[in-house]
Amino acid sequence: MLKFEKLSICLVILFSIIGCQAKKTNSFLTNFACLPPCWESIKPGETTVEKAMVTLHQLPDIDQKKISTHGESWNTFEDIIYFHLLSEKTEGFAYVLDHKVVFLLFVGGLNTTFDEASKRIGMPKFVINVPTHSGVPGIPMVGNSITAFDPEKGIAYTYNTSEIAKVKQAEIQPDIPLKMIFYFDPKSYDRLLDAGIFSMSLLNREDTLKFIRPWDGYGSIEKKYPPAILK
Question: In the beta sheet, which residues pair with residue 92?
Fold first, then answer.
């Protein structure tokens, strides 16, 4: 009986270790084919639409049935390429300007945190805090979209306070799970400001620049990164 108890304990420990390792390897930021803002050889500001489409069709982790394009202009962009990553269950979007991908957006099962992003793709230089309202009629979800970014590196990551535990909503903390990661062409930063990319399309260029705050480390959102005022 004692042998079986020891065996059971060993198996529990083994499965726990395996589970932890699997969890770590599932992070969107685990492996890089190229350094951000490049992703899978798609480099914002350089890769053409044709090259991006060829690359997506060659990647085994992309659901080939879900690669499509918007087919027309949207906002300031000429087109959008849609794709789906199977392993992370993540939705991908490639936004096009001047016939080149300038902005890559990844949303969903990223399985990564603010701390991991800061270490793997870079510390932010700025943060913008934008109030948001979502949910269904009668059950509103009021939160704040927190976007940390570096316009010189072309990297950004976002989460919404309404989607995390209430005890963590008041502060930016290292273990906060991310909702979105995006890579962009630093040379297109001004045009992305015009498109409202860093403010959930809720602020224009002038207001975005007015309400971005220099990165001041983890801590109180209200004190360090007060919310933008929506008109």
Answer: 83, 106
